Amino acid sequence: MGIKITWHGHATFSVEIDGINVVVDPFFAGNNPSCVRPVDEVEADFILQTHAHGDHIGDTVELAKATGAQVISNFEIANWINKHGYENTWAMNTGGGYQFPFGRVKMTPALHSSGLPDGTYGGDPGGYLIFAKDATLYFAGDTALFSDMALIGNAGIDVAVIPTGDNFTMGPDDAFESLAYLRPKVVIPCHYDTFPPIAQDMDDWAERVNRETGVTAVVLDVEESFEL
User: Fold this and answer.
1) Percent of the chain residues topping a pLDDT of 90
2) What is the DSSP code (8-state) at residue 157?
3) In Å, how far are 82, 170, 218 from 144, measured between CA atoms?
4) pLDDT score for 134
5) Which of 2.40.110.10, 3.30.530.20, 2.40.10.10, 3.60.15.10 would CATH assign to domain 3-223?
6) In a 3-state reduction of DSSP, which class is residue 57?
7) Of 188, 166, 182, which Cα lies nearest the Cα of 14?
8) What is the pTM of this model?
9) Domain ranges across the chain
């Protein structure tokens, strides 16, 4: 059935892998000013949580309770979700991997912070490699540029989803430089334009990527999908 990646705005994505719905960093309409889809219209079998900031975890508990989705996250976030009355979590940590029905998931490093909305410790931030049947996907989460991205790139990435908004994460120049380490076939930018400090022109960035690298840049509109 293939893979379909849908952007809901900011850093929130749905990934359909052979009929299984995986939602990355739930932050939907009502909380997310760039999103048009309310959380009660979202289907989820699994949730991937990169870190604990409110603009990534704002709708995680509500979506999980409504759908019964298993939340995959670091240990600290899993415990926090358990304390909010939801037990279907799977705790991981940096460098660890596990086989799920939609593919093997490996948690990768990210250079960022990860405080929970209530101010408690949210563990280390991360990204995820998804080794699905038909492709390898990489969701970087919120991160700065770091040279060990070259080790992540050794996985043979088909699609990389990376932040480009600057101020809180990599900006366009560092995101461009990260492609030399990650070496994906396709890159999808995210975490831009949601708030004034992260406003960026991604069309110019994508044009540069397509002109100067061997990577194909795909800039999605909100609710637009990319299919492999």
Assistant:
1) 98
2) -
3) 29, 5, 21
4) 86
5) 3.60.15.10
6) helix
7) 188
8) 0.98
9) 3-223
Number of CB atoms found within 10 A of residue 58's CB: 21
pLDDT (0 to 100) of residue 1: 56
Task: Give me the residue label for tokens 């939801």.
Answer: 86
34 band by pLDDT with thresholds 50, 70 and 90: very high
- Say if residue 104's pLDDT is above 90: yes
Q: Specify whether the CB–CB gap between 28 and 55 falls below 8 A.
A: no
* Type and span of the H or E element at 198: none
Are the CB atoms for 123 and 75 separated by under 8 Å? yes
Distances (CA, A) of 69 to 66, 87, 109, 112, 226: 8, 10, 24, 26, 23
CA distances from 207 to 6, 201, 202 (A): 21, 10, 8
